[in-house]
Amino acid sequence: MKLKVDFHVHTIYSGDSSVTLEAAVQAALEAGLDGLAITDHDSCEALKKLDKFKDAPVLLLPGVEISSSDGHILALGLEKPVPPGLPAKETVEEIKRKGGVAVAAHPLCPFKKSLGEHVLREVRFDAVETLNASTIPVLYSSELKKLSLLAEELGLPQLGGSDSHTPETIGRAYTVVEVEDASVEEIFEAVRKGKTRPEGERIRLQDALNRLGMKLKQKIGRKLGKDLREEF
Ligand SMILES: [Zn+2]
Ligand SMILES: [Zn+2]
Prior knowledge:
There is one protein chain. The protein is of the alpha/beta class. The chain has two domains: about 1-200, TIM Barrel, CATH 3.20.20.140; about 205-230. The protein has helices spanning about 20-30, 90-95, 115-120, 140-155, 185-190, 205-230; strands at about 1-10, 35-40, 60, 65-70, 70-75, 100-105, 125-130, 160, 175-180, 195-200. It has a five-stranded mixed β-sheet with strand order 3-2-1-9-10. It is globular and about 60 Å long. The chain starts with a strand and ends with a helix. It binds zinc ion (ZN) (2 copies). One zinc ion (ZN) binds next to loops.
């Protein structure tokens, strides 16, 4: 059977996301997903709550996004984070030693903390995220072309994920995974074997500009409020 899984979602435990676990399940259902991986920044706090969702209509997969000193790495299947700040090679070795799946997150993307080409060549990842819906393709199209060629050349399984920090974007990009059973272990095994196909879309330039505008407005609003409070 084929399942649609978003392998890259941040929750409120990530420190930079507004997504609760309840909202994640609801948004995944609305997006027609079969599963999603929780990948908070260097935290597995959300995973302690997963028991409550074991009967949810969407599979919630454990994971974490590790800040290695070379860039971000998704560790699927881990329930305890590998310490941040280690080189990519050590981080990946540690993820594999603990039985996790090591995925290069948004590599070559200049606007995020991303692994470079030499790291992808030197370190043996289990898979690479070639479609990250929170990056704007027109702003780094040459890197994206290079990434797709590199993934082919290295024979790495390719994943898609939304990298959501808000519920609305969950499932914007996802991975079609070919499995025998809809179980967490089967899904991870299928990723290792490359039975994956990234699908979906990346963020549109207009959406990104709107989001940036909203953030700026909030920032200015907070600053003005603070200045006024200090004034009076
Ligand atoms: Zn990242
Ligand atoms: Zn992320």
